Structure prediction request, 386 residues.
Amino acid sequence: MSELIYLDNAATAFPKPPVVIDAMAEFYRDYGVNPGRAGYDLAVEAGLMLDGARSLLDRFFNNPARDRDRVCFALNASAGLNMIIQGVCNPGDHVVATMLEHNSVLRPLYEMEQAGIITHDLVPFDGDGYVDPDDIARAIKPNTRLVVVNHGSNVIGTVQDAAAIGRICREKGVLFALDTAQTAGMIPIDMAAWNVDLLAFTGHKSLMGPTGTGGMVVGPDVPIRPTRWGGTGVKSAVRTHLHYFPYIGEVGTANTIGIAGLKRGVEWILERGLDTIRRHEMALAERLIAGLRDIPKVTLYCAGAGERHLPVVSANVEGWESTQTGELLDVEYDIATRIGLHCAPMAHVGIGTTPKGTVRFSVGPFNTEAHIEAAIVAMRDIASLR
Ligand SMILES: Cc1ncc(COP(=O)(O)O)c(C=O)c1O
Prediction:
């Protein structure tokens, strides 16, 4: 069997840089104890690692609060988005989001609306995959509490104008939350310049950490309450959960081995340079798009490799359902892609691919030109079969 060609990096980056795996092994071998719960040397060392990871991410996202404790770790971006949406919305509030949202935003909104707590509206995107910030402005009502936007689409790869949306939210006095699951580690993110009040991130995609890492970053003066309650390792006699950072967003023992890996992943990105990684990935995406465009039976959806795109390409082959194409790519060509609706059903409504979805190719730092050429050849073969 030939070597697997992994083009599913938008689901999770694979492989991870070896230094990430080394950092995780080193943490568990040398000081893998519970941090911040005791004063012995190993606990202090583990606490320093955790603080170091918070400081690194605080700077990485340029939170104007400059307070590492406002980086709250959780399992993933979904947990961060739940903490944000449930932590800032009150009964009677309205939320604005977009048709490009992932279910990690859509489902909390639907659940809270069904429970009679909030209402929400989804702003559409244009034929190229972009949301007009003025449409967001128009959707904001007197009772709008929060605007939550998917920065980079995991379906069509378009990157929204976070700065313009942030400006509107600030002018209108509405909280702005940015879902950076697909962009963190791929595009420099600037909470301060873009007026981002709340940011959700995931560790296992372009930040190059392991699964089980992610969370939220909270800007200055953002009223947010804890949505989960439990042990914090400090102030155990206090009956209720602690209403200060990082405990507002954290409960129980942290995923320290994961965070040790995430920290090394972010350092690895910074050592290589975001620009260098992005240039490599976007050049491959550009080649993939050009190759697929040459195949008459292939349809691409909002594909592009410019500044406002990620190396994420959705396609379909005439005569084949996305599941069939994905299966052929996997079984016949050893190419791993993602098929279906990609947990973003409204994005597929917008591009007209409901209910069958698309085949999604997503490029990572370890992909090569040979991988892309193989994907193009495979798609040409599949197109010629019907
Ligand atoms: C845009 C977007 N938001 C949120 C998520 C959820 O991320 P996680 O699986 O880390 O919770 C994803 C995952 O694919 C995503 O692509």
